[in-house]
Amino acid sequence: MVRHYPGGPRSSEVTKQLILDVAERLCAEGGVEALSVRAVCEQAGANVASISYHFGNKQRLLEEMFQRRVTPLNEERLRLLDCALSGPRDILLEEVIRSFVAPVIRGIASTSPVEGENLGNSSLIVTQFLARIYSMPGEEDFLKAHYEPVRSRFVLALQVCLPGLSLDDLLWRYNMMVGALIYAMAGPQRMARRPIVFSNVANSDLENDPEYGIEQMVAFIASGFRARGLAQEWQIKHKAVAIHSVSLAGASQKCPPL
Fold first, then answer.
1. CB atoms closer than 10 angstroms to residue 176
2. Which ranges does the record mark as transmembrane (predicted)?
């Protein structure tokens, strides 16, 4: 679909952003691996040379798609965390968690299609795209470059709040927090969807309130972090089982044949 812009040809930056919008939507709809440069060009009203000029190749296009969504979120996360850490009192666990989840939930609540276009990045498109990128094989280095600084800062802050929790337990729970957030990125309608058995119960007005969603997540995740640690107990339990198994094996070897 070729687009015409009043007053003359569109600028180079407009073309670049339009390519990113179209590529993001197609990626979300069909998957990262199925993304076609030709389809992007056709729907953006651009040519293949534009992809090469602005991005170099498909991989770089994917990376810029990711960066423009994730970089502002991570910057806001770190800003909120810095504000919480600079306070006059000890930082609370809930403040760390809120700094991590709030920018994402608020961002989704404010995301809407571009007026007059069908290429806007709805919350569902952004969610699908990010979820696919998270699970892409071979993207570990790219994700590490964009997420490791944020991950390290938040894990250190969580350790301050939970000094008695082992690093193993802390990392498991951090990753489960990320998983819960990815699911929540599907939007408030999915989070508030009733099971069939409750289909006759009217939805609450709270389902469209992002701040309510944030506080639900903070309360749930904080409870998970505060649960008793399992790593040390698990290691002791399995060490005991292993010793018991070795003892049984030794005893069976000493028994005379019948």
1. 13
2. none
Complete domains list, the chain, with CATH? 62-253 (1.10.357.10)
The gap between the terminal CA atoms of the chain, to the nearest Å, is 85
| DSSP letter, residue 197 | G
Please work out, in degrees rounded to the nearest 5, the angle formed at the alpha carbon of residue 101 by the alpha carbons of 120 and 87. 130
Cα(231)–Cα(167) distance, rounded to whole angstroms?
A: 9
Contact 250, 138 (CB under 8 A): no
- Ranges in the chain, pLDDT < 70: 1-10, 111-140, 188-189, 238-258
Distance CA 186, CA 131 (A): 10
172-175, Cβ contacts within 8 angstroms, sequence gap of 24 or more = 172/231, 173/224, 173/225
Angstrom distance (rounded) from CA 55 to CA 12: 12
Q: Please report, for the chain, how many H helices and E strands are present, in that order.
A: 11, 0
The pLDDT value recorded for residue 251 is: 57
Stated pTM of the model: 0.75
Token pair of 28 as six digits: 């979300």
Cα–Cα dist 100/185, whole Å = 13
Alpha-carbon distance 172 to 230, whole Å?
10
